[in-house]
């Protein structure tokens, strides 16, 4: 098992696998909020491409929030893992939906303050996260990017489960995953430093790269 010192190192490893995009017109790097943003920052610098964020909220099981039954994205996009969601009642799903929708709108207002809505018309969107567990969040991100007009959607991550990698390969135009071990553990186990990225870190990053 290969571990990364932190998200910045993971970004450097990932960027090395994306060098074919250097010089391509209309590439935009999208960090999934929040953990994907430090990884995406390194990738955008290496590719010489603009950086922006995509706010996606994971829908977690009420008794185990880290287990996702789906995800929400801007513009009303919802992705459900029917196999997991079938274990919940409609009231439980609605309650989680409402909570995460409220948080999604809060983050959209915070991160997009003074900046225009994301427009991906005819662009190559490189969606970056710090890892793939179920893939539900990244899957929602792919659908959002297409709805926002992206011509091509690439998912790029430093590590992911084999199951998520295969699922996303059917959804995105390309999936670049630096490692997808068959015996996948939690994303955090592949990092020495996997601190929770704060809103302030995200806004500081966007300000610095604007």
Question: How are the SSEs placed, and which strands pair?
Answer:
Layout: H1 7-16, E1 27-32, H2 36-47, E2 51-54, E3 57-61, E4 64-73, E5 77-80, H3 82-85, H4 90-111, E6 124-128, H5 136-147, E7 152-157, H6 162-169, E8 174-177, H7 199-209
Question: Your description of this structure?
Answer:
With 210 residues, the protein is an alpha/beta fold. It folds into two domains: 7-55 and 118-209, 3-Layer(aba) Sandwich (Rossmann fold); 58-110, no CATH class. It has helices at 7-16, 36-47, 82-85, 90-111, 136-147, 162-169, 199-209; strands at residues 27-32, 51-54, 57-61, 64-73, 77-80, 124-128, 152-157, 174-177. It has a five-stranded parallel beta sheet, with helices on both faces. The N and C termini lie far apart (36 Å).
Characteristics:
2 domains, Rossmann fold, 210 residues, alpha/beta, 5-stranded parallel beta sheet, 3-stranded antiparallel beta sheet
Briefly say what this structure is.
The chain is α/β, with parallel strands linked by helices. The chain folds into 2 domains: 7-55 and 118-209, Rossmann fold (3-Layer(aba) Sandwich); 58-110, no CATH class.
């Amino acid at each position: 098992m290969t571990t990364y010192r932190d998200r910045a190192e993971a970004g450097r490893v990932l960027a090395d696998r994306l060098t074919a995009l250097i010089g391509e017109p209309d590439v935009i790097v999208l960090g999934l909020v929040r953990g994907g943003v430090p990884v995406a920052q390194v990738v955008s610098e290496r590719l010489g491409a603009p950086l922006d964020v995509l706010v996606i909220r994971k829908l977690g099981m009420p008794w185990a929030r880290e287990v996702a039954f789906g995800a929400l994205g801007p513009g009303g996009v919802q992705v459900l893992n029917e196999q997991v969601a079938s274990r919940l009642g409609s009231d439980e799903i609605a309650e989680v939906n409402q909570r995460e929708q409220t948080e999604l709108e809060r983050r959209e207002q915070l991160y997009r303050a003074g900046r225009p809505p994301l427009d991906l018309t005819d662009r190559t969107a490189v969606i970056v996260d710090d890892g793939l567990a179920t893939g539900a969040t990244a899957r929602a991100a792919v659908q959002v990017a297409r709805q926002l007009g992206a011509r091509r959607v690439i998912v790029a991550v430093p590590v992911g489960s084999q199951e998520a990698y295969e699922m996303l390969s059917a959804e995105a135009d390309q999936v670049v995953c630096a490692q997808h071990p068959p015996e996948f553990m939690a994303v955090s186990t592949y990092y020495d430093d996997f601190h929770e990225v704060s809103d302030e870190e995200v806004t500081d990053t966007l300000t610095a790269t604007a």
